[in-house]
Amino acid sequence: MTSIFMKALGDDFQRLHPMLQRRFGVSVDAGYACIGSGAFAEVRRGAWWTNPFLRFGAFRNILFPDSGTNVPFTIENYPYIDGLGRETVTFVRTLQMGPRRKRRFDATMIYSSEQDQIIDYLGTHQHLATGLDLKVLPDGSLHLTSGAQRFYEGSLGFTFPAAFTGTAELHETYDEIRQVFTVRMHVHNPRFGFLFGYRGDFTCEFPSVTPASIPSHLKPVREESRQ
């Protein structure tokens, strides 16, 4: 079973830096996970009027209103087959914002053959879904841009107007001199401007895993079939 990023990028996957190929090659058949740890040099949020939006997102581990510098974090990418039979990869980031305060970004990703792209489910309950546009840059780095956000709950399903959501852009590279992965992410809203972002670096381990060894607390509380 090819990794979801291999499917989405096709031949361009081979243009990624070899360490990024290993990082995004996580799959059930590959039999390994990618566990990263490092520090964000900066975590910042937008102006005061973005605070309610960010606080609302914190309820489902989507966004949060905190900011800081030199913030330790982990990112855990585990592959598994979800209850709907889809190969899924966790993208759970845990930030230590203070001695007693942790924040999480929860995401699970699948590859959609219908849309020929990765679908990113955000939050603990997969209430939000967005397609990802992936590009491999000439230096072998990966650039990711999120698309329209769709909300699903029960029989309810709709696409958020652009004015009430944010577009995320993420750039990930590998620094051969320092032998670390670097990441930069920011979320913008067309009306309110900058909402949230971070930048930092991390190292990774690639432990062997089996379906039975995937930590249950990294999986979503509910699974959404709609894309």
Provide key terms for this protein.
single chain, 227 residues, mainly beta, Lipocalin, 14-stranded antiparallel β-sheet, 3 helices, globular
What order do the helices and strands come in, and which of them pair?
Elements: H1 4-9, H2 18-23, E1 34-45, H3 51-58, E2 68-77, E3 79-81, E4 87-90, E5 92-98, E6 101-105, E7 107-112, E8 117-122, E9 128-136, E10 142-153, E11 156-159, E12 167-175, E13 180-189, E14 193-205
What is this structure, in a nutshell?
This protein has helices at 4-9, 18-23, 51-58, and strands at 34-45, 68-77, 79-81, 87-90, 92-98, 101-105, 107-112, 117-122, 128-136, 142-153, 156-159, 167-175, 180-189, 193-205. It is mainly beta. It has a single domain (4-218), classed as Beta Barrel (Lipocalin), CATH 2.40.128.
